[in-house]
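input
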Amino acid sequence: MPATAEPLRVAVLVGSTREGRFAPVVTKWLTGHLDQREDLRADVVDLAQTPLPTVLPAFGQQPPPGSTEQLALVSPRLAAADAFVLVTPEYNHSFPASLKNAIDWHGEEWHGKPVGFVSYGGLSGGLRAVEQLRVVMAEVNATTIRNTVSFHNAWSRFDEDGTCTDPAADTAAKALLDQLAWWGHALRDAKSVRGYVA
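output
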């Protein structure tokens, strides 16, 4: 990273809101990697702690009462982000409703920004959730990066202290964040010269 380049602001959007969830373990591991980098700054947006309204207004109408206050805890943070990492489990071969809801409530916040994925689950490791998210993120004019981190049988990949016991995951995290940083800087620089057109 050039000495004059400002670090990228990375919003880590945690999709699971299920009770007894594993998401905090995976998120802590990811933010540990982000904290080691000088070119990236993490902002964890946990949808269990900052829930969004679940009833979208009719097109062109105002949001339901109370929605503005809930959105104010999330929307400015997504708008300020230069890049995103979505942390998602896999539920019924897809991603959680809370994550889709967060995507649907926002528009320009996603435009022309890179998105990486960290998924977890059983045998599939959440990869089916990621494949569906790629299609959704393309529709909101975001750029998904190829490299992902996927924890297959995730509960066996961490010890009782939440430490990852799989060295391959750490290698995958570096590749993911390197790609995210490249795309983040490239897109941020491009938008500083020419506004993004959706």
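quick obs: The first strand starts at residue 8 and ends at 14.
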